[in-house]
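Hi U.,

Before I forget, here's the chain from the pilot set. I'm dumping it here mostly so it's searchable later in email.
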Amino acid sequence: MCKAFSCIVTEDCHAKWKFDMDAHEDIIGAFSLKDDGHHFARVEIAPANGSYLTPDEWIFKIDEKSKPEWWTPAHEAEARGAWIDWKKRLDKVLIYKPIIHPFRDIKPPGKITKKHLGLLKQWASVGDGVGDSVWASVRDSVGNSVWDGVRDSVRDSVRASVWASVWASVGNSVWASVWVYAGSFFNLPRSAWKYIENIKLSKGQSYPFQPAIDLWMMGLVPSYDGVDWRLHGHKDGRVLWTGKIK
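Structure:
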């Protein structure tokens, strides 16, 4: 599986790449390159630890059975230069922030107020398809590798504190909050978010799922069992409020 950053380096020393493409075959097609097995090489430069949020070291790899005979230090320099340009673009999109565990790291409010229920109502109005929207929007903006890496980092990091507490009974609705939290690590314009035609955004708001993020940062995670909504908090994910959205 290709990783970001991926590019094609031609024998005449040009790096071909697109910011939202990880797959070498997609890049080959996008630039109408003839794959004769001789005149270009597939290259990728990716974090050794697999984390795009906290990369330890970026590893250079020629993704071929063997290095082409024509390959020189100049070809590697061309690829690394392209990676620098790609990384500058990534740094404008990816928000490097700590992963917050809503149950472990944040003490929830002592009382659920109209403010919290107002955010819950906004979140409930978003409807189904949240995961599809976040996945498709981020994937088409930065490619699969970066999205998969950030999503997995968030999921794996909060799994114990969120999943273990409430996953068994209302996993899908809780997963929507986790997915949306992962999406908040990407600074995309409103126009980049897909399937949000029916979502009303406040003035100056670009992220369509901000109510869930606001609740998350208050130590609250919503769940829905098809009948009642709940707000969970504390280290054990206990129910702090349950009822119907009016």
